[in-house]
C-alpha cells in the first residue's frame, strides 16, 4: 500500500512540475506578445490553449493523428 502512495505522490509531483513549466512558458509568451497588437490570432491562441488545458486527452489524440497522417504522406512521397 505504501508503494502505491509513493508512486502516486511521485506522479503528482511530476505533473505539478509539468504544469509549472507550461505556465512559465505561457507567461513568457504572454510577456512577449504584450507589446504587440492582440488581434484575432491572439484570441485563437487563447482558445487553443484553453481547449488543450480543458481536454488534454483529445488534444494529444488529435496531435497524434495529425502526426501519423503527416508521416504517412511524407513516407509515401519518398
Overview of the molecule:
By secondary structure, the chain is mainly α. It has helices spanning 2-33, 40-54, 56-77. Helix 2 crosses helix 3. It is flat.
Order of helices and strands: HHH
Q: Report mean pLDDT, rounded to a whole number.
A: 80
Overall shape: it is flat
The value of Rg in angstroms is: 18 Å
> β content, as a range?
under 5%
The low-pLDDT segments are none
End-to-end span in angstroms? 53 Å
Secondary-structure class = mainly alpha
User: What proportion of the residues is helical, as a percent range?
Assistant: over 70%
Count the helices. How many? 3
Total E-strand runs: 0
Oligomerization state: single chain
Query: Main sheet?
Result: none
Element layout with pairings:
Elements: H1 2-33, H2 40-54, H3 56-77
Helix pairs in contact: 2-3
Amino acid at each position: 500500500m505504501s508503494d502505491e502512495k509513493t508512486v502516486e505522490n511521485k506522479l503528482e509531483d511530476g505533473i505539478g512540475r509539468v504544469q509549472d513549466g507550461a505556465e512559465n512558458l505561457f507567461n513568457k509568451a504572454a510577456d512577449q506578445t504584450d507589446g504587440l497588437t492582440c488581434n484575432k490570432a491572439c484570441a485563437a491562441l487563447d482558445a487553443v490553449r484553453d481547449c488543450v488545458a480543458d481536454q488534454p486527452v483529445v488534444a494529444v489524440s488529435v496531435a497524434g493523428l495529425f502526426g501519423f497522417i503527416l508521416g504517412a504522406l511524407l513516407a509515401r512521397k519518398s
